[in-house]
Amino acid sequence: MSWKTGFRSLYYLGAPEPDDPVLVPAQTAILVIDVQNTYLERPDRASLSPQEQQRYDLWTPFHERMHGTVIPNTARLLALARQNGIECLFARIACHTKDGRDRSLSQKMPGWNNLLLPKNDAPSQLVAELQPAGDEIVVTKTTDSALTGTNLRLILHNLGIRNVICCGIFTDQCVSSTVRSLADESYAVIVLEDCCAAATEELHRKELEIINMIYCHVMSSGELCKIMALAK
Questions:
Q1: Residues 164 and 189 sit within 8 Å (Cβ to Cβ)
Q2: Are 8 and 209 in contact, with CB atoms under 8 Å apart?
Q3: How far apart are CA 27 and CA 21, in angstroms?
Q4: pLDDT value at position 112?
Q5: Contacting residues for 110 by C-beta, under 8 A, at least 6 apart
Q6: A Gene Ontology MF term for this entry (predicted)?
C-alpha cells in the first residue's frame, strides 16, 4: 500500500488519490519536533518497584521504535536534506524560567504533560544523534504546537518556505498540534510515518489516520526521497 491509499480514515475512504506533491528544495523544510533527552532516558529497570517496572515495560516498544527506526531514519533524512539545500529546523519543549512559570496551561496540568524543562538543563536538549549543524535554527516552545509557541511562523515566511516535512514525537500530541497549526496557515505539510512515534503503535497509527488527507499527507521517508529524487 502506498502513501496515496494508506492511513485513511472513514472520512476519506474512496477519495481520489492525491497527486505527487511538488517539493522545490528551496521552498521545503524539514522540521524535527521534540526529540529530546528527557524522552529517551531510562532508569535501571532493576532499581524500580514492581509497579514502576510494569510502566517501564509498557514504554519499551516506544524506545525500541525510537532507537531502531525513528532516530536512524531522521538522521539519514537530515543528511540528505543538507546535501540538497533543504532547510533543517528543530523544535523543542523548554521553559525560560527555572520554575516553569512561563509554560502554557497545558504543560502545567497534572500527569504526563506536567513538564518542567528549563531551557539550559540537560533533559531539555535535543538528543545527540539529531543535533543541528552549522546555523540551523532551533525554536524553543512552551506550547505543544511549534508554530503557536514560537516565532517559527515568521522564520518560515522569511526563509520562503511553503512545504514543511514533519518528524518527531509525539505523533498524537506535539507533532499533531504543529501539523494542524501549519495547515491552518496554508503550509503544505507532510508527516513521515517512519520518523515519528507515539507512546504506542496504536496511538501513532490512529493519529496519522486522523490528520492524513486534511491537515497533511502521510508517507514514509523512502517515499519522500523518491518524490524528491534524493538518494537514500
A1: yes
A2: yes
A3: 12
A4: 77
A5: none
A6: hydrolase activity
